Automatic annotation (TrEMBL):
<dbReference type="Pfam" id="PF21981">
    <property type="entry name" value="RecX_HTH3"/>
</dbReference>
<dbReference type="InterPro" id="IPR053926">
    <property type="entry name" value="RecX_HTH_1st"/>
</dbReference>
<dbReference type="Pfam" id="PF21982">
    <property type="entry name" value="RecX_HTH1"/>
</dbReference>
<feature type="region of interest" description="Disordered">
    <location>
        <begin position="1"/>
        <end position="90"/>
    </location>
</feature>
<keyword id="KW-0963">Cytoplasm</keyword>
<dbReference type="InterPro" id="IPR053925">
    <property type="entry name" value="RecX_HTH_3rd"/>
</dbReference>
<feature type="compositionally biased region" description="Low complexity">
    <location>
        <begin position="70"/>
        <end position="79"/>
    </location>
</feature>
<dbReference type="InterPro" id="IPR036388">
    <property type="entry name" value="WH-like_DNA-bd_sf"/>
</dbReference>
<dbReference type="GO" id="GO:0006282">
    <property type="term" value="P:regulation of DNA repair"/>
</dbReference>
<feature type="domain" description="RecX first three-helical">
    <location>
        <begin position="94"/>
        <end position="132"/>
    </location>
</feature>
<feature type="compositionally biased region" description="Basic residues">
    <location>
        <begin position="56"/>
        <end position="69"/>
    </location>
</feature>
<feature type="domain" description="RecX second three-helical">
    <location>
        <begin position="140"/>
        <end position="180"/>
    </location>
</feature>
<dbReference type="GO" id="GO:0005737">
    <property type="term" value="C:cytoplasm"/>
</dbReference>
<protein>
    <recommendedName>
        <fullName>Regulatory protein RecX</fullName>
    </recommendedName>
</protein>
<comment type="function">
    <text>Modulates RecA activity.</text>
</comment>
<dbReference type="InterPro" id="IPR003783">
    <property type="entry name" value="Regulatory_RecX"/>
</dbReference>
<dbReference type="InterPro" id="IPR053924">
    <property type="entry name" value="RecX_HTH_2nd"/>
</dbReference>
Length: 254
């Protein structure tokens, strides 16, 4: 299946799987933008005002005609007369931060909230802006989770356990995680695991059977597949090559 990666990764990024490796971009796979960690750490105040999204957010903040609260971002320096102003309306700033991040990659509410907190946006203002974004559909954790599961399973061959771990790591609520994971067809998951095993064994053909089995099982484990299922599929694949595989590992139902 195009996009499946059967090779052993250098190491897990978020736990026992190789689910999240931001340094390995793959065609068709949902990746965070390089240089941006999903929490706004790479953004600087020099980004403010760039792009139509930020301008739109600032225009929308003053429709009432009433003077808004002024807020000085942490570490800001007065630029002096005629220079860039250090004081910024917190609501406009929060909108601009969120719009910049969403323009680069889909984000969960928790990721955006973390970005706003790190930029010093007042909690009450951040909550109000995020509520508004959720009402308009700019933030939708349910849709994010569904798209993440589909993309990461098809592109990287990740199983339910690894997918759930990635979603929790991004702040998706447990109930939303369960619903997204439950939509992954169990038969499709097993078929994907078989394809991964076939690719891995093909890459190690000629090596000692136990070494081949260990590498294939380890690859599936890092992608979140149960150990029982992994040994079963590897054993079946080796036996299809005419290799006795009864003593390669655990047996029985996954």
């Amino acid at each position: 299946m195009p996009g499946l990666d059967g090779a052993d990764p250098a190491g897990p990024a978020h736990g026992p799987d190789d689910a999240a490796d931001p340094g390995q971009a793959e065609p068709g796979v949902w990746q965070e933008e390089p240089g941006v960690d999903g929490h706004g750490r790479a953004l600087t105040r020099g980004d403010r005002g760039r792009g139509s999204a930020a301008r739109s957010a600032r225009r929308g903040s003053g429709r009432s005609g009433r003077p808004g609260r002024r807020w000085a971002a942490p570490g800001a320096e007065q630029a002096g007369p005629g220079g860039a102003g250090a004081d910024t309306d917190p609501e406009a700033e929060a909108k601009a931060i969120c719009l910049r991040l969403l323009a680069r990659a889909p984000r969960t509410r928790a990721q955006l909230a973390d970005a706003l907190r790190r930029r010093g946006v007042p909690e009450e203002t951040a909550r109000a802006v995020l509520d508004r974004f959720a009402e308009t559909g700019l933030i939708d954790d349910e849709a994010f989770a569904d798209a993440w599961v589909s993309s990461r399973h098809l592109g990287r061959g990740l199983a339910r356990r690894a997918l759930a771990h990635e979603l929790r790591h991004r702040g998706v609520a447990e109930e939303t995680v369960r619903r997204a994971i439950d939509r992954l067809d169990p038969e499709r998951e097993i078929a994907t695991a078989r394809e991964l095993v076939a690719r891995k064994l093909a890459a190690t053909r000629g090596a000692d059977p136990r070494v081949r089995a260990r590498r294939a099982v380890g690859m599936l484990a890092r992608k979140g597949y149960p150990a029982g299922l992994a040994f079963q599929l590897v054993r079946e694949a080796l036996e299809a090559e005419g290799i006795e595989a009864d003593d390669l590992g655990p047996s029985g139902d996954p």
